[in-house]
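Narrative of activities, Objective 1.

The group set out to show that a structural description can be obtained from nothing but a protein's sequence at a throughput compatible with the screening campaign. Below is one input-output pair from the validation batch, recorded exactly as produced.
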Amino acid sequence: MTPPTPAPAAAESAAVAGSSLASTGQTALLTGNAALVDADWAGRVAAATGIPVRAMLGYAGASLALAAEQPGCRLGWSTLAGLGNIESGHGTHAGSALGTDGTARPGIFGPALDGSDFAAITDTDGGAWDGSAAWDRAVGPLQFIPATWQRWGADGNRDGVNDPQQIDDAALAAGRYLCNYGDLALPDRWRAAVFAYNHVDSYVTAVAGYANTYAARAK
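Output recorded for this entry:
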């Protein structure tokens, strides 16, 4: 099955400006990558797409940060939003929500990877991130396995902590993981990157569908 071609990153760019969440009815001062995103833009696109504003700031902030860090990658925010929708409903899975600081509360945890429904992965983090010292579980709004987080974990809000439950950190880590596959404005590289995130063709198709829809609604 061939997924739709994702919209080029250039068509998904967000305005760059220091900002707060005041214009979206929230008051926390934004730091790190989220502060790169114009709050009015984020509020407008959130309303058009149904993506929570704080998640929108995380996705767009990571895209902007990576445009400076790895300009050859060309990762658009809508790809991260497609991942975030599927992985956790943009941080809303099982009653969780992203606070103004971008952290999912309560924390988001996948099922134990004990081999019953998914591949068996014995504990790799001593329960530090996933709360289980027996089996690994995917963690946070972008559902990182602890061993993957150990390699790719990032500090997108610049508070000195790599936290998979924090949307700026998780979005930047996911973006770097995807950018490892090259120029994501090229459909074959984009498909390879998203397939690496989850080795299921239907998953790639679903992410492409959400990414294209979000990009179109944001115009």
